[in-house]
């Protein structure tokens, strides 16, 4: 019996103009946005490769951050965070900049131009379509009297609801599958995108998260449709909840996190930077002055050079630690903003999608850890310049390319388990609530 | 008769549950928005006062700083101004380097500011559609449309009455929300309350009415054209998504394709060769001439290298300014393309009204340029020379007649005497009329959308089959 109800529901959804318009709109958006994002990715990849060819690897070291392939599906922070970092023994920045270095900061957006990608389509468009498909699943049947008719047969209530639930699930499954399949096919066909098995695994995870997210919205819609008498009221409530969960909660999370975790001012950071090196400053100034004004006496000159280098590097590292603590606080503020808005499935969805796509701040932090390691190595090699020139030359000729430990798929999944669990619980709670309400519902 | 319909429809709307929910949402959002705006304004004002005091307590002829005053009306529309540099370092000859932007947490996800413009453009536009989508098709489904048409009232009047009732129904929560917001804002910032603020608020109400009027007319048009109200709603929601997210999102991409503005990487690639060609090659040329014995003293060489450094730095400054102009041009193009959507038109008009957004930042930069002439004049009076610099400085060790010496880019001189007459950077206040003038193009756009959709709604209603 449940099978017959599922079949009827699925057919009804598939035949409805609502589903057709929604599907065409979604697939169109996914295809266009993926093509456009691939074009953008290709440009960024070309820039990255060209920049890498001319990268400095001697006195100063330039490191470039490669664009991430899956930013074509979930852009996250990939484009927002800079692509270039440059360090020497007297300067180690704690963050990346754009290709123009310090001038890049002028390239900030004025108006909130949303980045459109697969994640956006699911988070905003498909969630809205799910609400729109299911808001009248129970309420309208009651309004039209068909619910009474259906229940007057020997069909138990639980089977009716289960039939509607699974019917809707199949429709959601179809919509997400078609959309993501189109996007994946474009990625696979496009010559600019290197698709690997690992990448496909990540896409599969993104597919699972999308399903989980839409099911959460679907169960919530079914619940509201069961509770409310009129379908128009159900729609109104659902749209308000939608605005609340997708627009307002993430915003409030950010506002509250900034209130709870206040950041030190730029002046305070500057003062701390100065104070950490204070015990060594006098010696550094003395050595520096002597070193830069010295001529002749090769041995003394080299000795002063080494001391000057050591103190300059120490200053750089101590100041970097101060700024690093600040950068870590920024990350904690981001996590707090996310934790404070965990009641929104949209926030959970975003966190999981960007993690699986590698476009969240964790990936960026791993990159910065890699930069820190590269700096340590650079310092070791640079020191040889004053102690063992032959080895220095040897080391400089055999420099290894820059790499960093990107989080593996397994790592990402285990880190995202709590979020995925909450998303799952969200669906379970609403399903149970809807189920109980429907069993107790007065259908007159 | 038309008044009766308006009253009846209006009462029906305000008695509905959806109206009650809209009222609550509106008040909560406006209240939260006001709290955030007050907090942010106070923080920015503290920082502004501190930085300005610091600048004028330590006047310098080498480099000074210009600060943008916090926007008084940013609670109406922030327009992304918080992400723009509010402090610009100014060196002689108009060499500017903007400091880090106002948004300190560069790792934080982008969330829109909860200002008035955002609440109206997202929440109220959606509610305009929700109130309008069943106006005709719903009545047709229930069979009441036929009944209304059997009266002597013309179709145009019916649609006008429906339009007016929804417009009035939306103005109530808007007024309530604005009132709550104003109470919070004036409690913390009593000085803000002035006739200018009242005038801006009235214009904002008119602007908002003109904006959600577009969505009401769109809802009425489709409601008259399409028989099933559920299909009407889906089509309307698709249009809403296009206007609010997809068109502005795509505008950034489209503008990149249609404009031939160089990208950041392209510009960055030119910097290295430029330094080599315009600075080091010239310096090398001078040193070669020195080896040939063209100079008799070190001072002669230094005079030549100073000239070379200054000329090269001038070219570098122009290069950075070219990059900044390219960024500005790309932003301008994006905004132009996104004006297809009424949401963008409303956003930009509200930004102009609130004196925020890119126009405000451009004005700030123009004011710095104007001040730069005053600053240069002061330096000339005090030190007698203006040294052009850029963000780069250069130096190298060389030899002259076997004696080692260093050549480096010339540095601006710090005047050590009395600097009590140091000129202060003061922005000229922006008048309301100038803001309205800036908003005219966007207001005209909104008007065109209204006229176009009013015509469509009227024709759709006339051709509507009531059976």
Can you offer a commentary on this structure?
The complex is a heterodimer of chains A (444) and B (467). With 444 residues, chain A is mainly α. In chain A, 74% of the residues lie in helices and 2% in strands. Chain A has one domain. Chain A has 14 helices and 2 strands; from the N terminus they run ααββαααααααααααα. In chain A, helix 7 runs parallel beside helix 14 (409-440). The longest helix of chain A has 43 residues, at 298-340. Chain B has 13 helices and 5 strands. In chain B, strand 4 and strand 5 (403-408) form a beta hairpin. Chain B is elongated, with a radius of gyration of 30 Å. Chain B has helices at 2-15, 17-57, 116-132, 137-142, 144-149, 155-188, 195-225, 229-258, 264-291, 298-338, 342-353, 357-383, 432-462, and strands spanning 64-67, 87-91, 95-98, 395-400, 403-408. With 467 residues, chain B is mainly alpha-helical. Classes of the chains: A mainly alpha (444), B mainly alpha (467). Chains A and B meet through helix 2, helix 3, helix 8 and helix 10 of A and helix 2, helix 3, helix 8, helix 9 and helix 10 of B.
Overview in brief:
The complex is a heterodimer of chains A (444) and B (467). By secondary structure, chain A is mostly helical.
Notable features of this structure?
heterodimer, A: 444 residues, mainly alpha, 2 strands, elongated, B: 467 residues, 3-stranded antiparallel β-sheet, two-stranded antiparallel sheet
Residue fraction in strands of chain B: 5-15%
- How much strand content do the residues of chain A show? under 5%
Largest sheet of chain B: 3 strands, antiparallel
Overall 3D geometry of chain B? elongated
With strands numbered from the N-terminus, the spatial order across the biggest sheet of chain B is: 1-2-3
If helices are DSSP runs of H or I spanning 4 or more residues, what is the number of helices of chain A? 14
Output the radius of gyration of chain B: 30 Å
Chain pair sharing the greatest interface: A-B, 75 and 78 residues
């Amino acid at each position: 019996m449940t099978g017959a109800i599922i079949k009827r529901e699925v057919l009804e959804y598939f035949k409805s103009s609502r589903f057709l318009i929604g599907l065409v709109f979604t697939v169109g958006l996914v295809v266009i946005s993926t093509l456009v994002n691939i074009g953008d990715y290709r440009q960024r990849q070309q820039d990255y490769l060209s920049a890498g060819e001319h990268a400095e690897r001697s006195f100063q070291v330039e490191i470039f951050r490669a664009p991430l392939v899956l930013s074509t599906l979930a852009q996250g922070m990939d484009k927002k965070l800079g692509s270039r970092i440059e360090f020497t023994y007297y300067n180690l920045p704690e963050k990346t900049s754009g290709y123009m270095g310090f001038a890049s900061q002028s390239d900030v957006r004025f108006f909130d131009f949303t980045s459109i990608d697969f994640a956006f389509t699911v988070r905003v468009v498909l969630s809205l379509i799910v609400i729109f498909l299911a808001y009248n699943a129970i309420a309208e049947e009651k309004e039209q009297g068909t619910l009474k008719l259906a229940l007057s047969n020997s069909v138990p209530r639980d089977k009716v609801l289960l039939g509607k639930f699974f019917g809707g699930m199949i429709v959601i499954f179809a919509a997400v599958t078609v959309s993501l399949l189109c996007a994946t096919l474009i990625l696979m066909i496009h010559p600019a995108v290197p698709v690997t098995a690992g990448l496909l695994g990540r896409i599969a995870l993104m597919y699972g998260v999308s399903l989980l997210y839409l099911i959460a919205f679907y169960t919530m819609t079914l619940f509201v449709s069961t509770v409310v008498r009129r379908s128009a009221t159900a729609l109104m409530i659902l749209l308000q909840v939608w605005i609340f969960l997708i627009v307002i909660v993430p915003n409030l999370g950010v506002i509250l996190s900034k209130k709870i975790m206040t950041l030190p001012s730029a002046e305070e950071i500057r003062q701390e930077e100065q104070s950490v090196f204070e015990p060594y400053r006098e010696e550094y100034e003395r050595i520096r002055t002597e070193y830069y004004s010295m001529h002749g006496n090769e041995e003394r000159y080299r000795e002063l050079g080494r001391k000057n280098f050591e103190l300059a590097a120490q200053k750089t590292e101590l100041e970097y630690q101060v700024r690093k603590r600040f950068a870590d606080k920024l990350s904690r503020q981001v996590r707090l903003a996310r934790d404070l808005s965990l009641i929104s499935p949209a926030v959970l969805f975003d966190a999981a999608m960007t993690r699986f796509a590698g476009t969240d701040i964790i990936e960026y932090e791993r990159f910065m850890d890699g930069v820190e390691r590269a700096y340590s190595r650079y310092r070791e090699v640079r020191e040889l310049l004053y102690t063992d020139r032959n080895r220095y030359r040897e080391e400089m000729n055999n420099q290894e390319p820059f790499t960093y430990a990107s989080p593996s798929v397994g790592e990402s999944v285990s880190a995202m388990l709590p979020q995925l669990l909450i998303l799952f619980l969200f669906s379970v709670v609403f399903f149970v609530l809807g189920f109980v309400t429907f069993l107790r519902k007065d259908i007159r | 008769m038309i008044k009766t319909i308006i009253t009846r429809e209006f009462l029906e709307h305000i008695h509905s549950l959806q109206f009650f929910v809209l009222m609550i949402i509106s008040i909560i959002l406006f209240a939260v928005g006001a709290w955030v705006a007050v907090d942010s304004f106070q923080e920015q004002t503290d920082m502004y006062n501190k930085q300005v005091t610091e600048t004028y307590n330590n006047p310098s002829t080498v480099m000074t700083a210009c600060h943008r005053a916090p926007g008084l009306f940013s609670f109406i529309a922030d327009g992304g101004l918080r992400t723009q540099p509010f402090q610009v370092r100014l060196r002689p000859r108009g060499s500017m380097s903007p400091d880090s932007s106002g948004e300190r947490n560069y790792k934080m996800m982008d969330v829109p500011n909860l200002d008035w413009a955002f609440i109206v453009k997202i929440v109220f536009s959606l509610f305009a559609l929700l109130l309008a989508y069943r106006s005709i098709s719903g009545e047709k489904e229930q069979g009441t449309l036929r009944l209304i048409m059997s009266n002597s009232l013309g179709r145009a009047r019916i649609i006008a009455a429906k339009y007016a009732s929804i417009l009035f129904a939306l103005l109530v929560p808007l007024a309530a929300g604005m009132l709550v917001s104003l109470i919070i804002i004036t409690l913390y910032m009593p000085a803000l309350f002035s006739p200018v603020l009242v005038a801006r608020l009235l214009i904002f109400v008119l602007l908002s009415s003109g904006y959600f009027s577009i969505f009401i007319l769109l809802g009425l048009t489709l409601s008259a054209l399409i028989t099933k109200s559920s299909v009407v709603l889906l089509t309307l929601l698709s249009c809403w998504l296009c206007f609010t997210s997809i068109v502005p999102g795509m505008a950034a991409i489209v503008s990149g394709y249609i404009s031939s503005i160089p990208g950041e990487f392209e510009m960055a690639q030119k910097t290295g060769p430029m330094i080599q060609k315009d600075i080091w090659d010239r310096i090398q040329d001078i040193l070669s001439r020195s080896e040939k014995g063209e100079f008799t003293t070190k001072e002669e060489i230094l005079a030549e290298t100073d000239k070379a450094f200054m000329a090269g730095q001038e070219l570098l400054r122009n290069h950075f300014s070219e990059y900044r102009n390219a960024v500005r041009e790309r932003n301008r193009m994006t905004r132009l393309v996104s004006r297809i959507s009424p949401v963008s038109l409303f956003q930009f008009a509200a930004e102009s009204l609130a004196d925020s957004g890119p126009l405000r930042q451009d004005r700030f930069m123009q004011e710095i340029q104007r001040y730069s002439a005053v600053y240069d004049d002061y330096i000339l009076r005090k030190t007698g020379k203006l040294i052009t610099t850029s963000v780069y400085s250069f130096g190298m060790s060389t030899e002259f007649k076997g004696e080692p010496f260093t050549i480096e880019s010339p540095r601006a001189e710090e005047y050590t005497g009395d600097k009590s007459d140091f000129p202060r950077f003061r922005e000229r206040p922006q008048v309301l009329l100038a803001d309205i003038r800036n908003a005219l193009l966007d207001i005209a756009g909104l008007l065109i959308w209204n006229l176009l959709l009013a015509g469509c709604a009227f024709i759709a209603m006339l051709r509507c089959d009531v059976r």
